[in-house]
């Protein structure tokens, strides 16, 4: 099978909202009046962002999910995406499964594949997503990293740390019971982009981003962009590790032998969570809960923005904790 047959078989679909899709030199998208385009690119490299033997259907899902997560963080509605794919060989069963996982998530979000590039080389998946954000009274509704104010609450959606715990288990760095690993690795391999929550937070959040490299490191980006400091309750964040919460609930049925420090490390600096981290003024607490209900996405208040620079960690008693929880950096 050649390059063009491969594209036609697995990736060419009729254009829907796009003016022109796969098959020409460019795709064409028509922004609606009163909107801006939100654009983001994420690359997944085999052996670096995923294990080479990862199930191709899940890999297809994840490749788009991490990009949709960026749109969610901006409060953008997904519209379309392009796919640049480098493949070591044509493996049709791999391609069919990859396309299935990718396009199922795309369809679930009405986000259409409008073009891309296909080459032979080390396995590498690069997606660019295009989304839409309204402009109201001349003002963009996009959520940015730079809007946090002193006294704002800090929230995170969903769960933390499970993805990284699954990765460590797959790499043999920690031991999980088999059935626990099956559930936990879904968080690593099939993250849920929080698109509906991002949309619901447009008029509510003062700043937002998605947690990809680790909670505290990513919070640092909001603090830097907003020129603010913060206080975070490490115990509340740690309680958001789903598998830890479950092991406490069913105490004795399975045990995961990790120190409290190690649990904290997963929650605070694990990475690969693809949850939304956002801030909102304290008088909008009810509006945050309404956004959470409307999007059927749990959110938890984990701290507060302070005018005083720096990131302060406390435990559930309010006692200060040393912050040694650095997050992932590809070049560090
Ligand atoms: P060109 O030579 O003009 O760069 P290509 O031959 O690379 O075009 O691609 C032909 C068409 O197929 C283009 O419309 C391109 O956007 C699309 N395409 C190529 N690879 C992919 C892919 N992996 N997924 C979706 N569309 C693709
Ligand atoms: Mg090309």
Ligands: adenosine-5'-diphosphate, magnesium ion
Termini separation (Å)? 41 Å
Enumerate how many helices there are, as a single number: 11
Largest sheet: 7 strands, mixed
Helix content: 25-40%
Question: What is the overall pLDDT average?
Answer: 95
Shape: globular
- The stretches of 5 or more residues where confidence is low (pLDDT under 50) are none
What's the order of the H and E elements? HEHEHEEEEHHHEHEHHHEHEEE
Protein architecture, described:
Helices cover 35% and strands 25% of the residues. It contains 11 helices and 12 strands. The two termini are 41 Å apart. The chain is of the alpha+beta class and 332 residues long. The structure holds adenosine-5'-diphosphate and magnesium ion (MG). Adenosine-5'-diphosphate is lined by residues 7, 11, 22-25, 83, 85, 113, 115-118.
Summary of the model, kept short:
With 332 residues, the chain is α+β, with helices and mostly antiparallel strands. The protein is built from 11 helices and 12 strands.
């Amino acid at each position: 099978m050649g390059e063009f047959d491969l594209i036609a078989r697995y990736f060419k679909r009729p254009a829907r909202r796009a003016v022109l899709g796969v098959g020409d030199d460019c795709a064409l998208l028509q922004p609606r009046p009163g909107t801006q385009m939100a654009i983001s690119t994420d690359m997944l490299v085999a052996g670096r962002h995923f294990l080479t033997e990862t199930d191709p259907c899940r890999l297809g899902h994840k490749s788009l999910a991490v990009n949709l997560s960026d749109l969610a963080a901006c409060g953008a509605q997904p519209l379309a995406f392009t796919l640049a794919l480098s493949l070591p060989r044509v493996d049709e069963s791999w391609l069919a499964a990859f396309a299935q996982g990718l396009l199922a998530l795309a369809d679930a979000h009405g986000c259409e594949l409008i073009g891309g590039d296909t080459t032979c080389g080390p396995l590498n998946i690069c997606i660019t997503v295009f989304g839409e954000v309204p402009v109201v009274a001349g003002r963009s509704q996009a959520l940015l990293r730079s809007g946090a104010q002193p006294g704002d609450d800090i929230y995170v959606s969903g769960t933390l740390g499970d993805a990284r715990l699954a990765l460590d288990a797959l790499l043999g760095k920690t031991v999980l019971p088999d059935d626990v690993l099956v559930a936990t690795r879904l968080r690593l391999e099939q993250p849920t982009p929080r698109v509906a929550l991002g949309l619901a937070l447009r008029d509510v959040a003062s700043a937002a981003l998605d947690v990809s490299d680790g909670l505290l490191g990513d919070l640092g980006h909001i603090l830097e962009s907003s020129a603010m400091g913060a206080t975070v309750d490490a115990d509340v964040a740690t309680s958001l590790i789903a598998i830890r919460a479950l092991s406490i609930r069913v105490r004795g049925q399975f045990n995961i032998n990790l120190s409290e420090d190690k649990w904290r490390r997963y929650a605070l600096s694990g990475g690969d969570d693809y949850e939304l981290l956002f801030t909102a003024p304290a008088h909008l607490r009810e509006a945050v809960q309404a956004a959470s209900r409307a999007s059927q996405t749990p959110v938890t208040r984990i701290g507060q923005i302070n005018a005083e620079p720096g990131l302060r960690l406390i435990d559930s008693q309010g006692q200060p904790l040393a912050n040694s929880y650095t997050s992932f950096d590809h070049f560090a």
